[in-house]
Specification:
single chain, 503 residues, alpha+beta, Arc Repressor Mutant, subunit A, 3 domains, nine-stranded mixed sheet, three-stranded antiparallel sheet, 15 helices, 38% helix
């Protein structure tokens, strides 16, 4: 029997506010900041403290809800989600349950079969937990070299509460995805929107966005919903793909053997590339939800909602479609250039600065090919990848360079060389052309002399051409360009070379 997966995603995204969700502690980098330095009695769960809602966090959440076409509830309720874990200092998490901030949205994804809407069940606010670091060491008196081979070992965990209380947005989809590819497309599209809205950096290595995949399998062609499992805290697209694929195969094999899939919460071992059981899956009643007594209902008035709606930027899907229609770009180019808001803005600034004889498609080719190639090879002083914000080549400078190529003042090969120098120095194309004498040679008389010299110096190749070996023309062309130090106009050289060979 053939089985198909049924997948729903829960996405947790930290909001880029300056302070935490319910207190005034600063939101700090969870990787580089010294542990337990951004903590106060409120976020550390001291008795007698009172939470206060972060207004900017609510506004960021509204941006996301509107971008996902959700219905925003005029009144939502914060609730206590009760469970014990070492990095949850209060013993409960302030979240939303029965009355969330927003519901009933949709996100359109691109698939191999075209566009597909994925329903969004809910968008709600909550607070993040702290961070645990697990340390495993050999037991005292044991041989450290053998502890990894089953010998006794002891461990302990370190708790960092810097992240406890950071505003967290949970976005829950309906189980509308039926392949690993659809699951990844949804996750990538959602991350793209969060970055466009400037509410989340999308830096998965730092755990600011985490995916939890709910997966079940069923006989293909049926519409039943079988027992599902939840894979927790997947912090990369690769992990999401591989964990989902593994779990789909595991469940399919169980059903094929006549077994039963148990409802449970799983972890993902990235090294072994397997899922593992963490605990039996909790249901809502296990968390003993009840309204947070220290927080009043969250009221969203119409004026606030409309102001947020009016301030929404153009979203990735709309920008993608506009780039195709307005600039005549291919779907590939439009996808690359709109994948990040800053890249799309760079391209449009360059379009505004370009000369009339340069098409947007030509600009796109230079960006996605030559410029991105240089960026991929380089790194910032701190070792990070170069982004458009780091570029010394500003949009107007790139447009000027391409304009020089289009006007024939330099050839394309020289243009690529100049771009590499601009990338390193930040000088303009005109400055580099002037200082290095790189202006293209189009003088027909001079080029005719160079061609004549090359033909005279290579009689064997000329003879080969006359006997029918026409591909030798390309070799002779290269010799002329070398003699011209790469500055000759390629079209003029090609025309003159063919003319003299025929004579």
């Amino acid at each position: 029997m053939e089985y198909e997966p049924v997948i729903g995603l829960e996405v947790h995204a930290e909001l880029q506010t300056k302070s935490k969700m319910f207190c005034s502690c600063a939101v700090v980098d969870s990787v580089s900041a010294p542990p337990n330095t951004a903590v106060c009695p409120v976020c550390s769960g001291m008795p007698g403290t009172l939470p206060v809602v972060n207004q900017m966090a609510v506004e960021f959440a509204l941006r996301v809800a509107l971008a996902l076409n959700c219905t925003v509830n005029p009144v939502s309720i914060f609730a206590r989600k009760n469970y014990f874990y070492p990095d949850l200092p209060k013993g409960y998490q302030i979240s939303q349950y029965e009355q969330p901030l927003a519901e009933h949205g949709a996100l359109v994804i691109k698939t191999a079969d075209g566009e597909k809407p994925i329903r969004v069940r809910r968008v709600h606010l909550e607070e993040d937990t702290g961070k645990l670091t697990h340390i495993t060491e050999p037991c005292k008196g044991s041989d450290p070299s053998t502890s990894s081979q089953g010998k006794p070992a002891q461990g302990y965990s370190l708790v960092d509460l810097n992240r406890a209380g950071v505003p967290l947005l949970e976005i829950v989809s309906e189980p509308d995805m039926h392949s690993v590819e659809e699951s990844r497309a949804y996750a990538e599209s959602l991350r793209e929107i969060l970055r466009y809205l400037e509410v989340n950096s999308g830096d998965m290595e730092k755990g600011v966005i985490r995916f939890e995949s709910n997966i079940s399998v069923r006989p293909k062609g049926t519409d039943v919903l079988n027992t599902r499992v939840e894979i927790k805290n997947l912090n990369s697209f690769r992990a999401l793909e591989r964990a989902s694929a593994f779990e789909i195969e595991r469940q399919s094999k169980i059903l094929q053997a006549g077994g039963t899939v148990e409802q449970e919460t799983l972890g993902w071992n990235d090294l072994k590339e397997t899922t593992y059981s963490q605990r039996s899956k909790e249901d809502a009643h296990d968390y003993r939800y009840f309204p947070e007594p220290d927080l009043p209902p969250l009221v969203i008035d119409e004026a606030w909602l409309e102001r947020v709606r009016a301030e929404l930027p153009e979203l990735p899907r709309a920008k993608y479609q506009r780039f195709i229609e307005q600039y005549g770009l291919t779907e590939y180019d439009a996808g690359v250039l709109t994948s990040e808001k800053a890249v799309a803005e760079y391209f449009e600034e360059a379009v505004q600065c370009k000369t009339e004889n340069v098409s947007p498609k030509t600009l796109a080719n230079w960006m996605t090919g030559d410029l991105f190639g240089l960026m991929n090879q380089a790194a910032t002083p701190s070792g990070n990848k170069i982004t458009v914000a780091d570029l010394k080549v500003r949009p107007e400078a790139l447009a000027e360079l391409i304009g020089l190529v289009a006007k024939g003042e330099i050839n394309q090969s020289t243009g690529k060389t100049i771009l590499a120098e601009m990338f390193q120095s930040g000088e303009s194309a005109a400055e580099i052309v002037q200082s290095r004498g790189l202006k293209q040679v189009s003088d027909e008389g001079l080029i005719a002399e160079l061609v004549q010299q090359v033909l005279a110096e290579n009689p064997d190749q000329v003879t080969s051409f006359k006997t029918g070996k026409e591909t030798v023309v390309n070799w002779l062309f290269g010799q002329v360009m070398r003699k011209a130090a790469g500055k000759a106009n390629p079209q003029v050289v090609r025309t003159e070379l063919e003319r003299q060979l025929k004579e």
